[in-house]
Amino acid sequence: MKTNSIPTTSYLHSSFGHPVLRSWSELNTNLTKESLIYPLFITDDANAVEEIKSLPDVYRYGVNKLEEVLTPLVRKGLKSVILFGVPKTAKKDNFGTSATSEANPVLPAIRLLRKKFSELLICCDVCLCAYTDHGHCGILKDGELENIASIQRLAEVAGTYALAGAHVVAPSDMMDGRILAIKNELIRIGKGSKTALMSYSAKFASSFYGPFRDAAESGVKGGGDRKCYQLPVGSRGLARRALQRDMAEGADMVMVKPGGPYLDIIRDGKVTGKLTRELCTNYPVAVYQVSGEYAMLWHGAKNGVFDLKVGVLESLTSFYRAGANVIITYYTPKILEWIDERNYPSKL
Ligand code: PBG
User: Fold this and answer.
1) Which domains does the chain have, with CATH numbers?
2) Where, in this chain's numbering, is 5-aminolevulinate 1 bound (predicted)?
């Protein structure tokens, strides 16, 4: 695993070259366009626009549709996207082989976005679950996860995205040791100072991922769960340890997921960054308002429980209050419009 002698944590300022990344390392108390990341599901039918029943108003797109979909959003100020591959025709196996082949629709998507939207910050979710035949986020041996093989494979996937042009790689698998493995791989391929590493550090075994698994077709086959690698819902202490560990292994940014039910963990992420390196160090903390939270807000508003804009803005306000710098949300297109209307409290 050790690939050269530079400590992974040396790659500090250089990983923050992109202007959007620099804005993430500043303290944010205003709702800004820079702080929003829009998740995109990329399928391998290049011309597809597919509805996702459990995620109203969110679609899977083929690579040929991306320019048309994103042009108006970029015009409205979209600064960043995170890409999820949804391979449908690619063969799935234990190793997620297709994740590093041209069968992975994320690769042409990265290249296209780099070409067409030169200022857009491109993040890629790094995981195996959409590419394995069993649907787990790592490699199995005799029915158990094989840690070293899994993190080596995840590092290869992250490296492949980095070489294709991703600015940020974001591993969501939760295998132990993957941050160090990925950081070393990025350094080895010459991307240590070009590609930032955002760790899904505090990712809980949540019931709120259901619609995403529909969208990415990434559920565990046969109905198992991911409790042996995602965090126990009640464990604040384990989440703190995961945050600290990932910072120590060379993560440039950390993430908490889901968002609304885990505001205490967002705050811990902010504080952990400061404690880990004494004075005022700054680990941008991202929060993922996940598919189930999106759907709850959507259905609540649809059924007259609250106004959608007021409810969503309240959820964002809480994220900022807890200490988040970056918010991943399927509501991004709507929020860009709401920011333009300026019809919200500007100081959150
Ligand atoms: C892949 C991954 C998941 C999400 C992001 N990356 C699903 C999971 O871990 O089961 C969930 C995102 C959402 O619910 O919006 N490992």
Assistant:
1) 3-340 (3.20.20.70)
2) 213, 226
**What is the C-alpha to C-alpha distance for residues 237 and 240, in angstroms, rounded to an integer?**
5
177 vs 300: CA distance, rounded Å: 39
Strand 196-203, strand 253-257: pairing: parallel
CA 342 to ligand 1 center in whole angstroms: 32
**CA 212/CA 328 separation, integer angstroms:** 13
- Is 75 annotated among the ligand-binding residues? no
Q: Give the model confidence (pLDDT) of 97-155 as tens digits.
A: 999 999 999 999 999 999 999 999 999 999 999 999 999 999 999 999 999 999 999 99
225-236 burial: b if 16+ Cβ within 10 Å, else e: ebeebbbeeeee
Ligand 1 within 6 A of 125 CB?
Answer: yes
Question: Catalytic site residue 257?
Answer: yes
Q: Is the CB of 246 under 6 A from ligand 1?
A: no
| Residues pairing with 202 in the sheet | 256
Flag whether the ipTM exceeds 0.85.
Answer: yes
The catalytic position among 65, 191, 194, 203 is: 203
Q: Which two tokens stand for residue 267?
A: 């705050």
Residues 6+ apart with CB under 8 A from 299: none
- Select from 136, 175, 209, 233 the residue to mutate for testing ligand 1; criterion: most ligand atoms less than 8 Å from CB: 209
